[in-house]
Input
Amino acid sequence: MYPLHFPSSTDSILTLSNPKPYIWVLEMHNGVDSRLTPHFLMDAFIPALDHVELAWRNQWKAANEGGRTDPSNGRGALVITGSLAQDKFFSNGLDLNLSLSLPGFFSNIFNPIIIRLTTFPIPTVASINGHLFAGGYILAAACDYRVCKNGKLWGCMNEVHFGSDFPPTTLLFLQTRAQHQGPSTMRKLIQEGHRWTSMEMLDVGMVDEVVEIFAGWVPSVHTFRFSYSGIGSSRPSEQVLRRALQVAEKKSEDARTGVYGFLKVGNLSIEQLLVRNHGSRNLARQITYLIPFWFTSPKNIIVSFIIVFLRRLITDSPFRPVLMTPSSEVPPSILQSASQPTRTTEKLFY
Output
């Protein structure tokens, strides 16, 4: 079955592999710098997330019902990496002009994707194999863990350099992710557009580990938690991925109880700001979102209705279980307007 190519085998801009039954690797290769274009996000990235989430939920259910026969025992983790055919980019962010040509792109597509990653039901690991600018930086920040290579690698929110401001949603997201880093770090990140090296990001806690690639591709890892070293002949991107897979293996245990994603939801005020208010959803539709869930006992049925109530409070829930598809979530006017040069007044969130 694997690897899977999205949106199709003849137009592959994302590859999803499954090195272990409970670990998935999402490789972005949309152009030389893994641009987060509307086509990539709607037709490749979202369907790939749908596939991973549904596959894991089915495994979790099999592991927690009856005789617990599923070998994964409910574990799960997702690794996101830039193209493994190069070592320069994790992601260079959005195609700004094309994104601005789609009315509602940020509120209807990009913001919900970031929140969906932030509240994904299994641990997520960013395998940062190259530069990450703007939207690429946000994408990595939305993951639970970040492992990156040393050497020539920059992480940057570079809006100040090309004349774009930050909407409150972006500021809130970055501040939430950098609560412990202090005002000077936020000033450098947001107001100065500082290009952070991998070791600088490690020092301030933007990444968790740095894999240092020496001549001959012999890696070692500097981390404030533990030490790791290994020798391999593969290219730097693959060495970083190897370490990211080890982190994913260890953290996959956290998904076994089935509450990992709900524990991450936490701050509802962030979601209220990031997700556009399209009006209250029909209660029956809210309940149907819970059908793929594992709520089978009377106690968990009560929990299900509490979740429905919370979802109605925030009106639109991007952390729903599965099937966040363009046809069901994106207004037709957006899907039909890719060629229209209309510039909206909507602020940028990338």
About this structure: Residues 218-233, 268-297, 314-350 have pLDDT under 50 and may be disordered. Residues 248 and 276 are 32 Å apart (CA to CA). The radius of gyration is 20 Å.
